[in-house]
Design brief:
alpha/beta; 13 helices
Length: 333
């Protein structure tokens, strides 16, 4: 068994504006039994310079730091796999290089994991839209420690799909050959989180918002408008992989209603674009879920009317609706 409690893996790419805060929050952890694995994915900025400067300020952390450099930019999935290969701790934690964490996070979570012999411990997340406390929103997670119920929570979105608000036994990754897929660049956390919870024997929730998720980074890939279609396409791939995994690893559990809910939530991204192109894709993606859309008591009547127009190819009516909506938005600007 490893003497290191937690290996924290931090992929580095283009986050210099926020990286100092990220690293300080890691080096100031109350736990001393840590390993920090920084994976430099050929970042074009001065993140490495910032890291070396902070290592001089926190010399007691230097023996705990591993820096792995990619020769070429390989993407976040490969960077995470590189981190996993070099990790030696009993548990694995993740931090994105533009986020930061409470200084008690990894000590408190490991203490909880060790006391309960849990495979996974997870906490709440704080979405930060600015530097002040009043522009932060705590995202409370589902307090349910049944691993199949947690899988269902991930499918339908009751549970946040991020890995960054949890620590997971490294053996869970190793024993089940769980790795990140380079071809998936959106919702990849959700797929891995779901697999880990599926195989976990014991999961424990810690009701503290230890992870601070940066919503201010406009350079984040998921925030750029030009990546909207690509992100949805990647999200669709992830959804198919999730469904395929659960169908292949059948434990006699009925996920049908959860699948339907997840499909409707995902299709809503296309619906809410309120464009002819988006409506066309909405009609074609998971068409088997459309009948549930019209029978659902939670879908408002105006959306059902738009849905009826899409299903019946009333594109001229839809174009009128789009123009009216744009006029109303312009009027109330």
């Amino acid at each position: 068994m490893s003497d290191i409690a937690v290996s924290v893996i931090i992929p580095i790419y283009n986050a210099a504006k926020y990286f100092d805060r990220c690293v300080r929050s890691l080096f100031e952890q109350t736990s001393d039994n840590m390993e920090y694995i920084f994976v430099n994915d050929c970042t074009p900025d001065n993140c490495l310079e910032i890291l070396y400067q902070l290592m001089e300020l926190y010399p007691h952390r230097v023996p705990q730091v591993k820096i792995i450099n990619h020769e070429t930019n390989k993407g976040v999935a490969t960077a995470r796999n590189t981190g996993l290969k070099h990790a030696t701790g009993r548990y694995i934690g993740w931090v994105d290089s533009d986020d930061w964490v409470d200084t008690e996070m990894f000590g408190a979570m490991y203490q909880k994991a060790n006391a309960s012999n849990s495979d996974i411990v997870w906490c709440d997340i704080c979405f930060c839209y600015g530097d002040e406390a009043n522009v932060c929103k705590i995202i409370t997670q589902e307090n349910n420690e049944n691993h199949i119920d947690l899988v269902k929570g991930l499918i339908v979105g009751r549970l946040h799909g991020s890995l960054c608000n949890s620590i997971v036994k490294r053996n869970l990754y190793v024993d089940h050959n769980i790795i990140f897929l380079p071809e998936i660049s959106l919702m990849e956390d959700k797929l891995i989180s779901l697999k880990l919870r599926y195989y976990a024997q014991k999961c424990t929730y810690l009701p503290c918002a230890y992870y601070l998720y940066n919503k201010m980074n406009e350079q984040s890939l998921t925030m750029l408008p030009d990546n909207y279609d690509k992100n949805l396409s990647n999200g669709l791939k992830t959804m198919h992989l999730i469904f395929s995994f659960l169908e292949t690893n059948d434990k006699g559990i009925d996920f049908l209603q959860d699948f339907v809910h997840a499909k409707l939530v995902f299709k809503d991204h296309y619906f809410n674009s309120f464009t002819i192109q988006g409506f066309n894709v909405w009609k074609q993606v998971f068409p088997e879920a459309n009948k549930y859309f019209f029978s659902s008591p939670v879908v408002p009547i105006h959306k059902k009317m738009i849905g009826w127009m899409i299903e019946n190819n009333c594109w001229w009516l839809l174009k009128i609706c789009i123009k009216l909506r744009n006029l109303i938005k312009h009027f109330y600007k």
